[in-house]
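[Automated response] Your request has been received and processed.

Submitted sequence:
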Amino acid sequence: MSVERTLAIIKPDAVTAGAAGKILSRIEQAGFKVVALKMIQMSFDDAAGFYAVHRERPFFKSLCTFMTQGPCIPMVLEADDAIQRWRDLMGATDPVKAAAGTIRKDFATSIEANAVHGSDAAATAAFEIGYFFSSLELCGR
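Generated structure:
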């Protein structure tokens, strides 16, 4: 295994529901090191830039609107095999299909309001981390 970094976001639905602390606790209990974290309020343009890969998808506008409805918490996680481990901890996008004990099973309410985001590959993680964090904001560089 190799140490990787991945982007994670606690989405506005989970922040509004007061679940951020519980989700952060699970992240730490799972052995991830949080190397950067902040709370932000994205504009529609911010969300559109971040989700540009989905621009042609039918859900693009509603996803951007959802991500701007309240504050969210982007963070950079570091661990051996961080990308896959974080995706496993998140669970399936649809909380109905998510495995018991995953974050989405326990905190998400729908496919769109699914509590958390995670990078799906190393190249995606590199883009996503750089979207929210400068190199000066990353601890343990």
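Summary generated for your ticket: The radius of gyration is 14 Å. The longest strand covers residues 3-10.
If you did not submit this request, please reply to this message.
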